[in-house]
Amino acid sequence: MRLWLKDPIAVLADGAERGLVVEGRRIVELVGRGREPVMPVDAVYEAGRHVIIPGLVNTHHHMFQTLTRAHPDAINKELFPWLAALFPIWARHVKPDNLRLATRLALTELLMSGCTTVSDHQYLFPPGLDSAMDIQAEEATAAGMRMTLTRGSLNMSVEDGGNAVAEATQDVDTILADCERVAGRYQDAAEGAMLQVAFAPCAPFNVTKRLMVETAKLAERHGCRLHTHLGETRDEDQYCLANFQCRPVDYLEEVGWLSDRVWLAHGIHFNDEEVARLGRHGVGVCHCPTSNMVLASGLCRTRELEAAGVPVGLGVDGSASNDNSNLMEGLRHALMIGRLAYDATLSHTDALRWATEGSARCLGRTDIGRIAPGLQADLALFTLDELRFSGAGDPIAALVLCGAHRADRVMVAGDWRVVDGLPVHLDIAELRAQHGAAARAFLERL
After folding, report:
1. Staple partner for 116: which of 99, 141, 147, 378, CB 3.0–4.6 Å?
2. Alpha helices in 79-188 (DSSP H)
């Protein structure tokens, strides 16, 4: 069916003043000012109340952490003490049933904020959670969202010189075997894929060098991407210098990870030479502005990274350090903290680019992230009916500057997944009750 999204207030695309036409899963035409679609359409959606942007792409999250938002043992801490407080709680309490609820809640929040593609860095695999990737694949499929299933890993506990708790770690062979299994079952390299796979050892301070090296080899064999935390805090710099006698980017090169197959979470504390080196190799960086502010980690050098050729995307990061899963809100935070770092010429269009096209590049995708003929029909439609938008002159800028946080409609692969601000596939009141009940166990003191 050919559907014309007709006469929106504005579209984040050139030459689409009268909207766009979707056929099946793809955008097939942009309709310019004073024109009609070149071919007959089967249906019309009157979009006169809407601003249309590409579906947002979230490139870094930890969905299990929705169960420990604003946890009293972890608030008002920086990264390392924050992790020390929460690792034992996560290792004890995260189980298949509550991981399913955590994933469902995070996906629903993201979808309602206008997000159509997600990547979750699921690195926690305590005993009994072997099915984590299958649970997430099932939940993403039920939500109708695209997902990069990011099989993370931990194999260095505090006793080994890392910072994870022993109950949350796995041995290298177990990790690699499950990575093989997940890639064999879910990796889809086709255009328009709904599920893809990445491998993601957690961070330099909780995985071994052998795991980093072997994971890179495995990703090469399976055509999967690679992801890890890097350059998030000064503490990480000191850890790498003390344990590897080099800085984090040097370590990345040493283990074979300087590649355009890689995207990094945070990427804050890189010097000029490291920024240039990352750019030469096409390594992506996911900017996590909200989390960086909550944990006081620092300011990502977005302008320098982009100028060097680094793909820059956006992520909400873990819900315990955000503490929500709203990428549209994160987009506004990216603009505001960027202006503090640089100046007022950092634009709302920069932040929108990071959350769409830049994030798609981090995930290695060229079929999403823009509104253009031939690309997937992943769209977020926002109204400007709320009081916060009254008086706004530029409708695209208003989404960012006035603080849009909830889409009215969201389309993924040509299907409406949010209608009138609500997901079509579930009851959010019931989800809130179930998730809240599951989260209460995480408030028990160890």
Report:
1. 378
2. 79-93, 96-112, 132-143, 172-186
Q: Which regions of 301-344 does DSSP assign to beta strands (E)?
A: 312-314
Angstrom distance (rounded) from CA 78 to CA 58: 23
CA 373 to chain centre: 25
DSSP conformation class of 65: G
Look up residue 216 and give its two tokens: 């890179």
Q: Which residue has the tokens 């007959």?
A: 40
List, for residues 49-81, the tens digit of each pLDDT value: 999 999 999 999 999 999 999 999 999 999 999
Residue bearing tokens 């680094």 = 310
pLDDT at 446: 44
Residues 346 and 396 both lie in one domain? no
Full domain range(s) for residue 44: 2-54+375-423
Contact 442, 68 (CB under 8 A): yes
| Sequence-ordered list of residues with C-beta below 8 angstroms from that of 122, at least 6 positions apart, any chain | 62, 63, 64, 132, 133, 136, 149, 150, 151, 152
**Is residue 430 in a domain?**
no
Q: The tokens 């930890």 sit on which residue?
A: 62
Based on the structure, what is the number of domains in the chain?
2
CA-CA distances (angstroms) from residue 398 to 110, 154, 161, 446? 20, 42, 48, 46
Which of 386, 404, 378 shows the shortest CA–CA distance to 5? 378
Report the DSSP pairing between strands 415-419 and 422-423: antiparallel
Give the number of C-alpha atoms closer than 13 A to the C-alpha of residue 290, restricted to the C-beta side: 22
Verdict on whether the full-model pTM lies above 0.85: yes
pLDDT tens string 316-333: 999 888 999 999 999 999
Residue 435, domain member (yes or no): no
The DSSP H or E segment spanning 225 is: strand 225-230
Nearest in space to 87 (alpha carbons), one of 167, 160, 159, 153: 167
- Compute CA 50 distance to the chain's CA centroid, rounded to the nearest angstrom: 25
Look up tokens 């709302």; give the residue. 348
Residue 423 and residue 426: Cα distance in Å, rounded?
6
Domain membership flag for residue 332: yes
* Domain CATH for 186: 3.20.20.140
- What single-letter DSSP state applies at residue 259? S
Let me know if residue 260 belongs to a domain.
yes
Please check the confidence at residue 421 and state whether its pLDDT lies above 90.
yes
Strands across the sheet containing 26-30 = 26-30, 19-23, 2-6, 43-46
- Cβ atoms 446, 92 nearer than 8 A: yes
